[in-house]
Amino acid sequence: MYMYKNTRITLIKGDITKLQVDAIVNAANNRLLGGGGVDGAIHRAGGIDILNACKEIGGCPTGEAQITIAGNLPSKKVIHTVGPIYKDGNNNEPQLLYNAYFNSLKLAEENQLKTIAFPSISTGIYGYPIEEAVDIAIKAVRDFIDTSSSIEEVVFVLFSVEDYEIYERKLEMIF
Ligand code: ADP
Q1: Residue 155 C-alpha to ligand 1 middle, in angstroms?
Q2: Residue 116 CB contacts under 8 Å (≥ 6 apart), including other chains
Q3: Under CATH, which number does the domain 2-174 receive?
């Protein structure tokens, strides 16, 4: 795990469901009923109680976030956010992706959660080009932690080595 200078941002390659952080973020869908990718992995590892909590919430608009228990996961909570489905970039996708990161951090702060891990939201099944998505992810996290000291660590968790290397290159360019 490498902390970028004094930024409170770290990067790891691995499975987000294994992380012992205060909150892991789920790249969920609007209905919050589970799905493929990281969403499926979180519900499989976390158990049915998370799904039941999501059903009770009833859904989540794109760019917003909701919090639940973490069931059998080692994290304390799961923050479910919904990134945009990428069409052509002209459907407010950048703002919605930014909001997904920013609102997840806000929700963590409101719940006194200090360490939070993000997957690469929208860049799997939702098709967001990763190079553009990473810039937005980093900007949203920087904007938030620049104005708030409540979050102690933000971890970007990448499942594939290719994605990890893109994040690494971008972070090293900035910091
Ligand atoms: P979206 O629908 O928002 O695009 P996906 O789950 O399809 O979400 O993909 C988001 C990213 O999560 C992809 O880069 C995928 O490789 C990654 N991913 C899948 N499973 C895991 C996991 N267990 N831990 C971390 N990242 C994961």
Answers
A1: 14
A2: 21, 22, 23, 24, 25, 79, 104, 105, 108, 151, 153, 154, 155
A3: 3.40.220.10
